[in-house]
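Dear V.,

Thank you for sending over the compound details. I've combined the ligand you provided, adenosine-5'-diphosphate, with the protein sequence from our construct and run the structure prediction for the complex. I'm sharing the raw inputs here so there's no ambiguity about protonation or stereochemistry in the SMILES, which I know was a concern on your side last time.
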Amino acid sequence: MKARLEEMPSRIEPARIDTLGGDLPDLVAEVAAKAERLGHSLHPKTAANLSDLVRLMNTYYSNLIEGHNTRPRDIERALAGARDEGQRDLQQEAVAHYRLQERIDRQAASGELPDPADPEFIRQLHRDFYAGASVEMLTIRSGDRSFTMQPGEWRSVAEQDVEVGRHLPPTSACVPAFMDYFHLRFAFDPAPGRVLQGVGKGKAKRLLATATAHHRFNWIHPFPDGNGRVSRLMSHAMAHASGIGAHGLWSISRGLARGLQPGLDGRGEYKQHMAWADEVRQGDRDGRGHLSLKGLELFTGWFLRVCIDQLTYMSDLFELDALSKRLDRHVALSETLPKESARLLQEALMRGEIDRGEAERITQMPERSARRVLKQLIDEGLLASDTPKGPVSLRFPSATLDTLFPRLYA
Ligand SMILES: Nc1ncnc2c1ncn2[C@@H]1O[C@H](COP(=O)(O)OP(=O)(O)O)[C@@H](O)[C@H]1O
Ligand SMILES: [Mg+2]
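Below is the predicted structure of the protein with adenosine-5'-diphosphate bound, written out as structure tokens.
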């Protein structure tokens, strides 16, 4: 059967921005440069532990965008295995989001990240995001009808048709064809012979495609639910694959949730820019595709500015001298920690990790007192080791966030 004209997958064109105009070239260059520098002054061990914090933050914001508000403290507890009455589902999805981002970060670090635009990769994200979901989480309701979503499966039958705000995504039956086309246009590693179609290796090309793929994916809305969360994980993977991942020291969700303007205005920017990019072509000077090129450029410019804003914020936060001062301040404000504990924290910051036996020398306290201070820092979660007796490194539990990382959370 021939697809109806309005259901042709090429309806997502323009999928990419091929001719850079306006301030896009400068924005691309700035994102690349800022990502390159982020976390450079940090010891790799400290950076790795900070990326845990970033992952938790991304999880928080990505779910918050969907109106699912789980406090950092409760996500942290959930990661440790707790499920609290009344928020099991929220904690479940937070853990799933966190673990998936962790996997992406690990794959990116070891060079094993699959092509983020590959439909198999995306379906796997969705499958794993919902792997431990309750029946309630998988029940999709619309009016008085409902159905159960299958994790990892595209929409396929008419009852799964969706609406997003004022946008009507393609009918369910067409989703596989749209996602094949999505892959064709957004493949970071196109199959030989298809190079002209896919994104290819260039950094600027990949960065721009990260932005436009985010919109076009959500425009297709291939799953009955979970598109937003899965798309933000896909974008996180694309950021890594574009070379702007900065070892997991920043992530896009905080910026998408907060926008550029302060407060409520900023929080509306994401959906507003997504909606503008849904518009069809407005006249002869708006590209040659079915959708508006201007709308896509507007979205892309906003997306890149959001990246720059987040990279700047995280760079300031993770700047070595500033972080060092905030550690001192944290100890000074603490009602429990003795002032000598600051020396241990500073040493861990500078050197990445310290042997437990060094506490005496570093604090210049008698052995027993030094060990007590060390234990206290471990009990408060500021220092921890990978093995029971192993060297300790800095950690950043949620109770320390107000003093160590102000404004990280809404
Ligand atoms: N006008 C729009 N056009 C395209 N995508 C949109 C629009 N408005 C919102 N979105 C996307 O849809 C997502 C919500 O889709 P949904 O399937 O419910 O995902 P989740 O369950 O993860 O929230 C938002 O996070 C956003 O990314
Ligand atoms: Mg939803």
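A first observation: The pocket of adenosine-5'-diphosphate (ligand 1) is lined by residues 65-66, 164-165, 167, 218-219, 225-229, 231, 271, 274-275, 278 (CB under 6 Å).

Warm regards,
I. M.
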